[in-house]
Amino acid sequence: MGKSMISNLITGIKEVLVYQPPDEPTPFVLKETVMEKAEIDGEFFPSAAVTEGIRELEFMVNYAKKLEVFIQKSSKDLRSKEKHEIVKKIRDEFEMIQSEWKEIKKYTQKNHSIDGMYNNTVISTEISENQRILESVYQLPVNKDVVIRNITISDQPKIKALVVFMDGLIDKKIINMTLLEPLMFMKNIQERVQGEDFIGFVMEECLPSGQASRIGSFKEVQQAINTGDAVVFFDGSGEAVAVETKGYEHRSIGNPTTEQSVRGSQNAFTEVLRVNTALIRTMLHASDLVTEMIPIGARGHSNCAIMYIKSITNEELVEEVKRRISSISTDIVTDSGVLEHFIEDFPRNPFPQTLSTERPDRVAIHLSEGRVAIFIDGSPFGHILPVSFFTLMHSSDDFSLNLYYTNMLRLVRWLGALLSLLLPGIYLAISTFHQEAIPTELLLSIAAARSQVPFPTIVEILFMEFSFELIREGGLRIPGILGSTIGIVGALILGQTAVAAKIVSPIMVIVIALTGLASYSIPDYRLASAFRLSRFIFVLLAMSMGLIGVACGFLLFIAMLCSIKSFGMPYLSPLAPRTVNGGDTIFRSSAYHQRRRPDALNTKDEIRQNKNSRSWITDPAKGGRDFE
Question: Where are the alpha helices (DSSP H) in 18-82?
Fold first, then answer.
C-alpha cells in the first residue's frame, strides 16, 4: 500500500517535470496529384484521355465493320426463298448489333466526359440515360441544390418527362404555374405525337412561359440550369426545352458609390446581368441596341453580355470583341476586372485600357458615340471600349454642369494629375541637385526645417509615401464611417508626430499631402492607381539624375502612352495621331457644337446631330435669328 502510494507520487511528479510530447492526431497532408500528359500538335492532354480516344476509335471502327458485314449478309439472305426463318434470324442479329451499339454509346459518353461534365455529349432519346448523366454531373443525391422531378404528361399515350432545376436560383411560383401545371394537364396529344416536331408542339401550345428555347447538348443543359432556368426532357426526344424561371434574390438598384454625381443620374448597376442591361435600355431607347450573350468559363459558365448600337458601331470592333471573349479558355470568370485581363491589348501595362463604370447613364452616352459595353453576371461594373486617355479623365458631371465651370474643373483635374505624377520627384530633384532654382528665402526656410532631420530627402519621401498608402488601404478595409474617420485622424496624428519627432520636415508633409489630394482628383480609380505607381519611378529618376531624369522619364512616359492601343484605337487620340476633334477632349465645347462622333472610332454614322441643332434660333416663322 505504501509502495503503491509512493510509486504513484513519483510517477505523478515525473509526468509534471519530464517533458512528454502531446498526443496529437496525425497531421493531414494534401498530396499532390500527378497527371501524366501527352503532347499532340503542340497541345498537352492527359494521357488517359489520349488512350481512351484511341480505344473509342477502335470500337467505332470494329462496330462499323460488323455493321457492314451484317448488311451484306442480310441482303444476301433476303434474296433466298425461306423468308420467315431469315427474317427471324436477321431480327435476332439486329438486336445483338443494337445492344452492342448501346454499350459503345455509353462508352463514348464516358470518354467525352474525362472531366465528368459531359460537355460534348448530346441529349439521348432515352430519358433514363439523361437522368443518369445529370446525376453524374451534379453529384446526386449528395448535392441537395439540384431538383429532378419525374412527371407523366398526357393520357393517350402516356409520355414520361423530366424537369430539372436549381433550387435557390428559380422562382417556385413560375415553376409551378408556367411549367409543371401546364405539362401535367396536357390534353390528348396522340395525333401530335405521330408528327415529327413534338418539341415544337409543346413550346407553342403547352408552355405559357415568356422565354423557352430548344437545346440539344448537355453543355447547354448545364448552362441553363446553372443560370436559373428549368430544363424539361421528354422520353423519345433527342432535344430538351430550357424555360426561363429565374427568381433568385439580389441587391436592389442603389446609388453609385465610386462615381457620385451632383446633378446626374443616381442609379447604379447591380450584380444581376439582366438588371444591368435593362438599366441601359431605360436610358437609351434605341431599337437597334443589340445585346449578345457569350458564355465564358469551362466550369463556371458565366454569361457575358456585349451591347452596341448596330447602326453606329463599327462591325470590325464588335467582331474583335466577340472573338477575344469567345477565345477565353479558363475555369471561371466572376468579375469584369478578371475579364479585362484576358481581352485587353497590353495586360502588363498599369494604365487601364477600358473604362470601368457603375453608372448606366455613362454607358448610354458612350454607346451612342459608337463604343461597345461589356457586362458579366455577378459584377456591378460595366466596361466600355475602346477608350482613350482623355476619356478616362472625364467625369459623369461634365455635361450636367455649366460649360465654363466644367472646363475649370477639368483644368483642376489635369493639374492634379501632373502634381500626383511629378511633384515628389520635382521637389527631390530641386532640393538635392538644383538648389539655385529655389528662391533664397524659401531655400533658407527649407534648410532650417531640415536642419534637425537626420535622413536624406529620398528617405523622407519613401517613408511618407508608404505611410500615406497604409492610411489609404486601412481606410478602405475598415468598414463603414469608421474607415474614413480613422484615415483622417491617422493622417493628422502621423504627420504631426513625425514632424515633432524630427523624422520628416514640415515641407515634406505638405508635399506628400498635396500629392495625395491631387491623386484623388483623377476620376478613374484605376488611372489614379497607375499614376501612383508611376510616381515612384519619377522619384527614383530624380534621385539619380535630378531634373534631367524627371524630364527623360516624362518623355518615356508620353512615348509609352503613345504606344498603347485600346482595341485598335490609339490611347492618345485624337491628339496623337491627330484626328478630327469631336469637341470633347481636354476641354469640352457646348453640347450643340459637338456635331461629330469621335473620329478614331470609325463609326458607321459620323454625324451626331445637324449643323443647326438649335433651329428655334434661326426659324424665320418665329422671328428668330442666328446668334451663333
Answer: 47-78
Cα–Cα distance between 209 and 188 in angstroms, integer? Answer: 21
The region of weakest confidence among 352-356, 383-387, 578-582 is 578-582
Q: What is the mean predicted confidence (pLDDT) over 56-62?
A: 63
Look at the alpha carbons of 205, 208, 214, 219 in this order and tell me if their dihedral is positive or negative. negative
Locate the DSSP E strands across 336-457. Answer: 355-357, 372-376, 382-385
Q: Respond yes or no on whether the N-terminal peptide bond of residue 25 is cis (omega within 30° of 0).
A: no
**In a shared domain, residues 431 and 538:** yes
Residue 419's nearest CA partner among 503, 325, 283, 513 is 513
Please count the other Cβ atoms lying within 10 Å of the Cβ belonging to residue 378: 15
Domains in the chain, number: 4
pLDDT digits (tens, 9 = 90+) for 357-368: 999 999 999 999
SS3 of 142-155: CCCCEEEEEEEECC
Look at residue 457 in the predicted model and tell me its pLDDT.
87
Q: Where are the alpha helices (DSSP H) in 176-237?
A: 181-184, 190-193, 198-205, 218-226
In this prediction, residue 63 carries a pLDDT of 62
pLDDT of 114 higher than 50: no
Is 615 contained in some domain? no
Do 419 and 549 fall within a single domain?
yes
Q: How far is CA 254 from the centre of its chain?
A: 20
3-class SS at 376?
A: strand
| C-alpha cell, 376 | 458579366
Residue type, 506: P
Domain check: are 161 and 205 in the same one? yes
Contact 530, 350 (CB under 8 A): yes
Q: Would you give the DSSP letter of residue 211? A: -
Q: State the chain's mean pLDDT as an integer.
A: 81
What pLDDT is attached to residue 106?
Answer: 59
Lookup: cell for 204: 407553342
Cα angle vertex 146, ends 331, 248, to 5°? 80
Shared domain check, 151 and 93? no
Q: How many CB atoms lie within 10 A of CB 96?
A: 11
Mean pLDDT of 597-615: 85
Averaged pLDDT, 444-473: 84
Task: Assign residue 540 a region (left: φ > 0; alpha: ψ between -120 and 50; beta: otherwise).
Answer: alpha
Give the residue, 6 or 339, on which the prediction is more confident.
339
C-alpha torsion 417→420→424→430, nearest 10: 10
> Domain range holding 286?
273-387
Q: What is the pLDDT of residue 34?
A: 55
* pLDDT surpasses 80 at 280: yes
Beta-bridge partner residues of 308: 290
The amino acid at 384: I
pLDDT per residue over 523-552, tens digit each?
A: 998 999 999 999 999 999 999 999 999 999
